[in-house]
C-alpha cells in the first residue's frame, strides 16, 4: 500500500516547509535539495513508498546501510523538510505518486516548495520565477518572487505534484529557474536557493561551497543527467506554451 514511513518519531516539526528535489532539467532540484541536506546536516526522517518508484536499494560511500530511493530529511530547528530522490519517477505512475505525496503533505500540514528547471535560452544570471497553489501567491509576493512573464507548463513528476496540489487546494509554490538543458547546473540551483528558497523558508542559505564544488557536482551528476536526456518523459521541466498549442 502506498504510504510514507516515518523513521524518526523523536523529531518534532510544526507546519514544516518542504523543498522537493526530484531530478529534472539541469538537475536543479536535486542539486539544491542535496546541498540543503549537507549544509544543515539534516536527519534521515522518512521514506516514500508510492506507486511509480523503482524498488531499488540505494547505498552511500562509507555507509553499509541501504535506503529507498526517495527519502525525506528533517531539520527541526528550521522546521524544514527536504525530499531527496536518487531515481526518476515513472511517468506512467506520476498521478499515483502525486496523490500519495500530496495526501501526506495535507495530513502533516506541510507547505511544499516544488523546483523545476526551464531550458535557458541565453547566458547570464539565471532568472527565477514562481507559480502558486492554494494561498501560495501571498508567499511569493512576500518573498519578492516574480510571476512568469509568459504562459507555460511544468511537466513530469513535479508537474503532477503541482497539479494535484492545485486540485485539492493545498497551499504551495512552484519555482522555475533557467538552467542548462544538457548538463547539471549548480549555478541555477544556487539562484534557486539564494533568491527564492531562502526567502520563502525564512532562513539564509550559504551557497559558497556549492559554487566551489560546481565542477565536482557536475562530474558526479552528469551520468544521471544523461539518463534523463535519454528518457525525457521521466524528467521534470518547465516550458513555454505557444498560443495555438
Strand tally is 12
CATH level 4 superfamily: PAC-like subunit
Query: What's the overall geometry?
Result: globular
Under the CATH scheme, which architecture would be assigned? 3-Layer(aba) Sandwich
- Report the uncertain regions: none
Residues in helices, as a percent range: 25-40%
Mean pLDDT: 88
How far apart are the first and last residues' alpha carbons, in Å? 38 Å
User: What is the helix tally?
Assistant: 7
How many domains, in number, for the residues? 1
The secondary structure category is alpha/beta
User: Looking across the biggest beta sheet, what order are the strands in?
Assistant: 1-3-6-7-2-8-11-9
H/E element string? EEHEEEEEHEEHEHEHHHE
Largest sheet: 8 strands, mixed
- Relative strand content: 25-35%
Cα-based radius of gyration, to the nearest Å: 17 Å
CATH names the topology as Rossmann fold
CATH class identity = Alpha Beta
Pfam family, one: PAC2
Region (Disordered): 223-245
Protein name: PAC2 family protein
InterPro entries: Proteasome_assmbl_chaperone_2, PSMG2_sf
Amino acid at each position: 500500500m502506498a504510504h510514507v514511513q516515518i523513521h524518526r518519531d523523536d523529531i518534532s516539526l510544526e507546519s514544516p516547509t518542504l523543498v522537493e528535489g526530484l531530478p529534472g532539467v539541469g538537475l536543479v532540484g536535486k542539486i539544491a535539495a542535496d546541498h540543503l541536506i549537507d549544509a544543515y546536516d539534516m536527519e534521515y526522517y522518512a521514506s516514500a513508498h508510492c506507486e511509480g518508484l523503482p524498488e531499488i536499494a540505494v547505498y552511500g560511500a562509507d555507509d553499509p546501510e541501504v535506503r529507498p530511493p526517495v527519502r525525506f530529511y528533517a531539520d527541526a530547528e528550521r522546521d524544514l523538510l527536504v525530499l531527496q530522490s536518487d531515481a526518476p519517477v515513472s511517468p506512467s505512475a506520476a498521478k499515483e505518486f502525486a496523490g500519495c505525496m500530496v495526501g501526506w503533505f495535507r495530513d502533516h500540514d506541510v507547505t511544499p516548495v516544488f523546483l523545476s528547471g526551464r531550458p535557458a535560452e541565453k547566458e547570464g544570471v539565471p532568472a527565477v520565477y514562481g507559480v502558486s497553489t492554494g494561498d501560495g501567491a501571498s508567499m511569493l509576493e512576500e518573498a519578492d518572487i516574480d510571476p512568469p512573464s509568459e504562459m507555460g507548463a511544468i511537466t513530469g513528476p513535479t508537474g503532477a505534484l503541482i497539479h494535484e496540489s492545485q486540485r485539492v487546494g493545498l497551499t504551495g509554490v512552484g519555482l522555475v529557474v533557467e538552467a542548462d538543458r544538457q548538463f547539471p547546473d549548480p549555478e541555477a540551483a544556487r539562484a534557486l536557493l539564494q533568491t527564492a528558497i531562502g526567502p520563502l523558508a525564512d532562513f539564509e542559505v550559504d551557497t559558497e561551497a556549492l559554487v566551489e564544488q560546481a565542477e565536482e557536482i557536475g562530474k558526479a551528476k552528469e551520468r544521471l543527467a544523461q539518463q534523463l536526456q535519454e528518457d525525457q518523459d521521466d524528467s521534470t521541466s518547465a516550458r513555454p506554451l505557444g498560443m495555438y498549442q
